[in-house]
Design goal:
Elements: H1 2-17, H2 19-35, E1 38-39, H3 50-62, H4 64-71, H5 75-95, E2 98-101, E3 104-107, H6 108-117, H7 120-126, H8 140-166, H9 172-195, H10 207-231, H11 237-262, H12 286-310
Parallel strand pairs: 1-2
Antiparallel strand pairs: 2-3
Helix pairs in contact: 1-3, 1-8, 2-3, 3-5, 3-8, 5-8, 8-9, 8-10, 8-11, 9-10, 10-11, 10-12, 11-12
Length: 311
Amino acid sequence: MKYKNFYLMSLLAVILASVYPIYMGFVTLSSYLQNGSIDVTEYPKYIIPYTPICIALIMSIALMPLIFKLFEGYTLPVVSFLGTVIFFASEFGFEQIKVIEGYVEMPLESWQLSLCITTPEVLRSIGEPIYAANNPAFKIHFYLIAIVIILAVLNVINGFSKMLREQDFCKKRPLIAQAVSVVLFIGLCILACFTAFYRNGTINISTLSAILMSVFFIVFGITAGIYCGSIFYGKSNLLSKIIPAMTASVTTLIMYIGELVLMDGVLFKYGNGFFFEPIEGIPFSAADIVIILVSGVIAYIVMRLLNHSNS
C-alpha cells in the first residue's frame, strides 16, 4: 500500500509540476494545427526542452508499473531508455514547428536560440529577440539538461518505489541526496528561464549573475554525479566515489562546451582580473576550471559521506 501511495503521489506531483509546460505545448500545437505555423506574439517561451521533458516524465512514470511487471530488475534502465526516446521524439516534433515574425518564417529551434542568446534586459530594449541563424549544435546543453533531469527524476521515483516495494532501505540516503539535487537544479532551471540569471547582454556580467551561473553549473554536475553514485552505492571506492566525481566534472565541462557553441566560442566573464581572463590558448578562465573541478569535489564529498554513513 505504501508503494502504491508513493507511486500515485509521485505521478500526481510530476503532472502538477508539468501543468505550465504542457499548457505551453498545447497552445503552440493548437496554433500550429490551425494555421500551419505560430506567430511570434503567441509563442510561449521555453517550450523546448521543458515541454518534451514533462511529456517524457509523465508517460514513462505512468508506464513504470507495467515496465516493472515485464522487466523487474531492469526497470530503471528500461524506463530511462523509454523516457529518453519519448523526450527526443517530442523534442524533434516541436522543433519542426515554424515561428513567423512579420514576413520571416523560421524554425522554432532558431527562435529558441535567439531567446537564449538575448537576455531580459536586451528584450526590454529592443522589444523582440534578434533572429539568430540556425545552429543545431547550440542544443548540446538543452539536450544534456533534459537527459540529466529525466534520468535523475526517474531514478528517484523508481528507487523509492523499489525500496518501499521490497522494504529494503539501503539506498535511502543516496536517493534522498538525488532528490534534493534534482529539485534544486530544476529550481535553478526555472529561475534561468525567467531571469536569464540577470545577464546584461554583454560578456562581462554582474556579481549576482556570476554567482547564479556558477551555482547552476556546479549543481548540474553534482546532480549527474549523484545519479552515477546512487547506482554504484556501496561498491568499491572507484565506482562509488571517484567515478561519480569524474562524472560531475565531465558533465559540467560538457555544459561549458554547450555554452561555447551558443556564444560563438567565448564564455561569460565572471569578473575582472587574471583569474577571470581566458587562459592563453583556451577559452576557459581559471574561474571556469575551478567551477568544473568544484562540482567533482563536492560530488566526491557527498558520496564519501553517504558511503561512510553506510559502513
